Amino acid sequence: MTIRSLLRLPLIKYGLVGGLGTGIHFAVLIMLVEMWHMNPIVASIVGFIVVLIISYLLNRMWTFENRQSGYVKQFVKYVIVSCAGMVINTLIMYVTIEWISISYIIGQLISTVVVPIHNYIWNRRWTFTPVTTSMKTRSGEGKS
C-alpha cells in the first residue's frame, strides 16, 4: 500500500489531524502552565477548545470529506462529541494530578490515548455520517 493510498483512508487522515491537534494541545498546555503559571487542568481545557475549532474544519473538509449542507448542525454534533471527550480528558487530568499526584504531562499522555478513540468512533458514526437518500425521504427533505 502506498502513502497516497493510505492518505485516502479516513482513519489515517483522522490520525494525522489528531497528531496535529495533539501537538497544538500540548503546546498551548505547556505554554499556559510554564509561561503564565495557569492551573494545568484549566490550561488543558483551553488547549482542547483551541484544537476543537481547528480539528472540526480539517475533519469536515479532509478526513471525512463531508461538504454537505447543514454544517451548523454538524458542528453542534462535533462540539457535543468533543465536549464529551473534554470531560473524559478533564477527569483523567484531575485523577492523575489530584489523586495520584503524578505529572500533568503523564495525565495528558493518558488522555491522548483514550480521548481520540472515543471521538473517532462517535464522529465517524454520528457527526460526519453522510445523509443518504432514504434518510432524506424519511425526514421529508427528499420530497418535492
What does this entry look like structurally?
- It is a single chain.
- By secondary structure, the chain is mainly α.
- The protein has 6 helices and no strands.
- It has one domain.
- Helices cover 79% and strands 0% of the residues.
**Record field, number of beta strands:** 0
Radius of gyration: 17 Å
Strand content: under 5%
Helix content: over 70%
What is the quaternary state of this protein? Answer: single chain
> How many domains is the backbone divided into?
1
Order of helices and strands: HHHHHH
Subcellular location: Membrane
Protein name: Flippase GtrA (Transmembrane translocase of bactoprenol-linked glucose)
Keywords: Membrane, Transmembrane, Transmembrane helix
Family: Belongs to the GtrA family.
